[in-house]
What we know:
The protein contains 11 helices and 15 strands. The strands form 2 sheets. Strands 1, 2, 3, 4, 5, 6, 7, 8 and 9 form a 9-stranded mixed beta sheet that branches. It has helices at about 65-75, 95-115, 135-150, 155-170, 225-240, 275-300, 315-330, 330-340, 345-355, 385-390, 415-425, and strands spanning about 10, 25-30, 40-55, 80-90, 120-130, 180-185, 195-200, 215-220, 255-260, 305-315, 365, 370-375, 375-380, 395-400, 405-415. The mean pLDDT is about 90. The chain is α+β, with helices and mostly antiparallel strands.
Amino acid sequence: MVETNRPKLAVVENGGVASAKGVHAGGIHAGFRKNPQRLDLALVEFDQPVAAAGTFTTNKFCAAPVTVSREHLGADGGAMVRAVCINSGNANAATGDEGLDAAEETCDIVAAELGCDPKQVLVASTGVIGQLLDPAPFKTGIPALHDKIGAEANEESLRQAGGHDAAHAIMTTDTHPKERAVSYEATGALAGHTITVGGMCKGSGMIMPNMATMICIVTTDAPVTPAALHEVLLSTVKATFNKVTVDSDTSTNDTCIALATGSAAPDAPAIEPGTPEADELAHAIHDVCQHLAREIAADGEGASRLVTVTVAGAPTDADADIAARAIANSPLVKTAIYGHDCNWGRIAMALGKCGVQFDQRDVDIDIMGMPVCRKGLTVPFDEDEALRRFDEPEITIWADLGAGTCETTVWTCDLTHEYVKINGEYRT
């Protein structure tokens, strides 16, 4: 991205998926979960069909809603969409033809309520794998939720609250909703217009996305072609959500969808791929997605710390990624961080096993900004100072392989007793 095409971003207070003009969202309890206090159905809808793009899991056990939404978006990943419907409490994964029928029926129910083609509806689900999804809660929940969204559509505070409810409704083991919105003053062909990008996501466990995160919806009021939106989304996902790992497991339901209403500049030409206007939009979308990606890592199941791992000096970009993930996914590294143990030997171990070519005599390692290894040998450090630094909410690990010029950053979290407890009791 060209530096001059990075506009100054303003964070939208209490912003989220409904912050962009022309976006309406809400969440209710529809009955997918036993607890009536937990919202479990979210709907993001638009007055007219909007440009859309998506990326999805590469897991071979991909869920029924992934299959249906991928088909509705089309082979090129871009289409015009009226709504996205998301339920939590049931993943509708490994459910065969009945699961596909339930996903298609969900689209039919939403389409009937909005008066659109079912292929203009996208669906996503999250929750327990292998259980059939009962469409009955959609039949009562969608009309009620659509009416609720409509009643709040014309008041800004209520519209934002609806987005907040949607973010709550898609949560599973998340400890809090994950939201972000920014705005910027556009230039070039969109000069004089304020563009907003907002988003929400959920994700806490079964996280090492190989496309996006478990569920993420990004919206903007920029006028943009589906092709440009698809290009921006793909490049953003590679640099943000695909750099997150909580437990090295890729979900069956990973879905990331971007939608653009064009409401901020209805008379302006749509942004095309490879233009300065596309760079500006990409910068804003990257900010939102990186913020959400870091929140996923920080909210990893049972996590007490966000961990940022940077590997530099790698022979290739792929090598940098492999090495960084080796550190980020190592249970020994993650438990050492949980125990506030500045044990750089575990980092060296993870690097040494990953298969990337380097000479250990060239490796430097820092933990929390403290040099602990230089040229492959230990550097004396103050253990008390290390303990103090481990009290910070974000732990940083930096390693230079001394074997090239490529660098990457991956986000993860520590591994605690609570992770085992949460996943040991997931279905109980």
